[in-house]
Amino acid sequence: MISRRIIRTKVLQILYAYYSSPERSLVNTEKELFFGINKTYDLYHFLIFLVIDIADYAERRIEIRKNKHQPTREDLNPNTKFIDNKLIQQLRINKQLNSYINNKKLSWINHPELIRELYQLMINSDFYKEYMSDNHTSYAEDLQFVNNIFTEIILLEEYLYEVLEEQSIYWNDDVEFVISMISKTLKRFIKSSDSGQKLMPLYKDREDRNFARDLLRKSIINHDELRGLIKIHSRNWDLERIAFMDILIMQLAVTEFLYFPSIPTKVSLNEYIEISKYYSTEKSKNFINGILDKTLKDLKKTGKINKSGRGLIGEE
User: What is the pLDDT of residues 132-183, one digit of tens each?
Assistant: First the structure.
């Protein structure tokens, strides 16, 4: 499921596009935000399906070798442990996966060179050689092997990123997160899982979807107040010379401080500092941390922070 951090990152990206556009429409920007989040869910299913295509490619190679003019003993008696992998078989018949892939018309058919490259990387890996050489077969071993394909092959293959970039501008930044989603999904499978095994939902609950919408709306609607607070607490800096992305990160953090009573300020602060590591420089991260810390202390001092709910002890 889409994590709160990914939601925050998506809002940050769409907010950057909003302020960079001469024509600003909150309605259209909100639609663009949810379109981007849904594209992440597309990628989740698309990458799961990729491991099935790799297995299909491996099976075709076995059949080709069997039908050679003069097949060797090894050609006629191939090691089928990979193509017989129990988890891959479960994914192959999964109703939710197949329905989603078919409805969205997602396919790797136009990228046979990628499938071939991933296959070659896989068979040359140590974990593949170890897996195939072990005559013992267990479901746990099959599951771990598939997880290794995602974390040690697919995640690290630069050519995959090139292919994804050609298909969607939304995908490249999402691969690492999506593969972490896939790893969690695989752990939900058990030996007896059938075609009805559930994959992860897009959102944990409706509250997460509302969080995405409200974070975007409140940040834009309260723009003047939020920027004013940032300006006050960065008075030794020329706001015009502060990196635009840094300002947006701080704007979103202060939005959560003020307008999301159920989210602890410490959580908001830590989340945006983490996000700044990817979207700002090392110096920016320290700068953002300093400004947000001063802003938060001032807001608490003036009684503008009103938090309530579970996990909020110590907010005073």
Answer: 999 888 999 999 999 999 999 999 999 999 999 999 988 988 999 999 999 9
Which CATH number does the domain housing residue 256 bear? 1.10.940.10
- Half-sphere exposure in the Cβ direction for 73 (13 Å, CA): 0
**Within a domain: residue 197?**
no
Q: Which positions ≥6 away from 132 have C-beta within 8 Å?
A: 79, 81, 82
Give yes or no for residue 298 having a pLDDT over 90. Answer: yes
- First-to-final CA distance of the chain: 32
Q: Which domain holds residue 113?
A: 4-186
Same domain, 239 and 165: no
Q: Nearest Cα to 155, choosing from 188, 182, 128?
A: 182
In this structure, are residues 183 and 62 in contact, taking their beta carbons and an 8 Å threshold? no
Q: Note the maximum CA span of the chain.
A: 85
Extract the runs of DSSP E, i.e. beta strands, from the chain: none
Residue 38 is inside which H or E element, if any?
helix 26-66
